[in-house]
Amino acid sequence: MLDVKMGSEFMNQIETYEELRDKLKEYLSEDELDVVGKAYMFAFEKHFGKKRLTGDNYIIHPLNVAYILSDIKADYQTICAALMHDVLEEDKTIIDQLSNKFGDEIARLVEGVTKINKLSFSGDSESIKANHRKILVGLSEDVRVIIIKLADRLHNMRTLWALPLDRQRAKAKETLEVLTPIAHRLGMSSIKSELEDLSLRYYKPDAYFSIVEKLNQTKVEREDLVDEMIEQVSIILNENGIKHTIKGRAKAIYSIYNKLNKGKKFSDIYDLLALRVYVQNESECYQVLGLIHSKYKPLPKRFKDYIAMPKPNMYQSLHTTVFGPGGNLFEIQIRTYEMDVIAENGIASHWSYKENGRVNLQSAMEQKLQFFKSLMDLKDANEEDVSKGNEEVFKDSIYVFTPKGDVVEMPLGSTPIDFAYKVHTEVGDKMIGAIVNDNIVPLDYKLKDNDIVKINTNKNSTPSKEWINIAKTAQAKSRIKAFFSKIDKKDYIKLGQENLNKELRKRKESITDFLTNENIIRIIEEFKYDSLEDIYYNIGSNKVPINSIINFILNDNITKEELILKKTQNKDIVLPNTKNDIIVSGVDEIKVNIASCCKPVPGDKLVGYITKGNGISAHRVTCPNMMNNDERTIDISWNDCVTKKYPTNILVHTLENKNVLLDIIAKSSNTEVTIQSTNFVNTNDNFLYEVVVLVKDTTELTKFINEIKTIPNVIDVERSMK
Ligand code: MN
After folding, report:
1. What does the buried/exposed string (b/e) look like for 478-493 if buried means 16 or more CB atoms within 10 Å of the residue's CB?
2. Residues 109, 24: one domain?
3. Is residue 372 one of the residues assigned to a domain?
4. Cα 313 to ligand 1 centroid, rounded to whole Å
């Protein structure tokens, strides 16, 4: 019962299809088994003659991935896809064969796993790691793709001994940083815990084996204590007529390692003596807890009720720590058999329970996946809001229902305002009140698990600024702010108009003489504004000094930039200022801005434009905005020693919306290019992605663009100019 996992790489591996079939017979129909058999044959042929580094025939790998999934009663489509998950590596042209033989659903799963396997997840910062998890989860259309990926990685980790040392370490690190957090959030603790222990074994072998050794030294003693406790508890439960199973619980090595790392002593980790009680139903759980507490003194503050308040990954159990025989501390978990399946398999447990009317579990998990995806949609929010959005994934959450019974996952502490904005921006903006479980509630009401939330709206209603303080989620806050920034714009326009009038009066200039149509057009052209309103807006919001506008028209002042213009006409030779990325010939101290219309990157031929009041803006020579602007242009060039990466926009035209984004991101992981953001534009004729990339220079950029052009369904790739 209490034995320590000694690295399970030699355990559980099956060698023949019959072993898998026997296991699948327990829960699949004959028809389903037939399809699985065909999938096995298909994979067998495709991998025929190929060996793994372990010396096994290649087919042993997909066979065992499928076997791992049969443990959690995966549906037959998932089993088929697992068996064939590597066939596209052999020959990517057989995707059509796959669809014809096995249908689109299975083919899509195989394709999904293949795509994910192409991503490389290197990188050290927390944000990169979080980003990888986000991409992996967010871009998998079907959660089964991730589940197959986790099983695939588990088998690869079990056979990791066959790889060279450096690759063992790299794989173990990647598993810990990217994959186990995903397994955790999906509630798949049994796979997660095995992945963690295996990773630790290869990533920190010294720490791993020292824990294993210590556990072995105390093994017999601990087993005796646990057995004695099991016997005592069992007697109490039998006396009270409660049917039960009690098991000693092996503590995962990785979790011991984490506790030791936090400065705990080995002897202090009380859950080393741990047992778990399984009963039939929820009320028995509480009954068992009462009986245990009446016999053994509980340790204060160590009691947790995860039945009334499940963890966000659906985990349910009662936890308590009590003083057992001999004054030893025992950590006891109490749960039903059904809770145990969920605790071990999380999202995957819906396969086991789908007939028992537990459809809600599946839809709750789909909502969870939706939530990961919604992070990708936070692109309107500012940086601060995005990082808050990231935190929300890691915080506890609650599940509430719409009046139609759809589950919505919300962070703990969410209010009806958050719910409304989560449902739809329109619903949030027009909200007038909320009804929870048939009662009217105030808008700062804190939603609870299983609340049924109805939002009342009125088409003439608008949000209140106060809501920003009441709302909990970054999404709601940023949408309320967005609503007001639209309103604020009107205020700025008014303010700008007032300020301009005031300044003109102060200078004793006539407002009507100043704002002639001709002058307005001159300002619009000079400052690249859209309209008179836009001029006011820029003044009112302090984006442009009011004097630059007035002086430009009145022409009674020579700005600093014009002095520079004169100076450069003298053609004095000045040494390049090596501190700056862009060298302005003849000038050393001047602000240079990268033009946002054409976003040049190192390697692009540049031309400078001397703006009024805002330094020099650097454009690409090909920029359409520079075509007719020769008087104020100036020679500029990139400094040879630029090291910073610069952002630029590329447009990817595609034939159909076939998840090309994932391919684009996959291509970027082969290059030095960083993808900063992506935006999907659905135009009339075709599908268009706008991708903002950070690149070192044009060579990198061209290489990347050529890579993207090789993606099927991509029609054209170009750099964008606005
Ligand atoms: Mn594989």
Report:
1. bbbbebbeeeeeeebb
2. yes
3. no
4. 26
